[in-house]
Amino acid sequence: MNKIVTVLFLMSILVGCDGVARSGPIRHVSLVEAKGLLAKSPQSFTILDLRTPDEFMAGHLKKAVNENYYNSGFKDELNKLDKETPYLIYCQSGTRGSKALKIMEKMGFKKVFHLYGGYQAWTAKSLPIVKSLVKEEKVS
């Protein structure tokens, strides 16, 4: 009996802490779910890459827009976005995305999906990415 109670307690902590089991219009989605959402209606989603500009330039999802989570004006930039538009957000591994999901929910966004596992999960399955042209700097 104690083992059952312990397992249930641990499960409630895991679900409660990160919201992974969250359902509805503002939630985490698996790689499979994210691919499905983009395949069904790719034009209806704005894809936000929450990584740094350098990370973004090294590779990102097609049609993604870079909104650097570490930018001091990150929340101000989010406030400029249409809260009715559906968003798919991701970062490198999921940490920044999880935090941004909570911020966007508090700001009143209606439909936000966070790619659980982030860019690492996407590239681990060799899914398509776009690389930005990087200006080469002259080394003296």
Explain how this protein is built.
- The protein is α/β, with parallel strands linked by helices and 140 residues long.
- The chain has one domain: Rhodanese-like domain (Oxidized Rhodanese, domain 1, 3-Layer(aba) Sandwich), CATH 3.40.250.
- Helix content is 41%, strand content 14%.
- The protein contains 6 helices and 5 strands.
- The C terminus is likely disordered.
Give the structure's gist in a few sentences.
The protein has 140 residues and is of the alpha/beta class.
Radius of gyration computed on alpha carbons: 17 Å
Largest sheet: 5 strands, parallel
The residue ranges in which pLDDT falls below 50 over 5 or more consecutive positions are 5-22, 135-140
Order of helices and strands: HEHEHEHEHEH
Number of strands: 5
Termini distance?
A: 70 Å
Shape call? globular
The SS-based structural class is alpha/beta
CATH topology (level 3) name: Oxidized Rhodanese, domain 1
Q: Specify the CATH class.
A: Alpha Beta
User: Which strand-content bin applies to the residues?
Assistant: 5-15%
Q: Number of folding domains?
A: 1
Tally of contiguous helical segments: 6
Q: Give me the CATH architecture, please.
A: 3-Layer(aba) Sandwich
Please give the share of residues in helix: 40-55%
Q: Which superfamily, in CATH terms, is the homologous superfamily?
A: Rhodanese-like domain
Main-sheet strand order equals 1-5-4-2-3
Mean pLDDT: 83
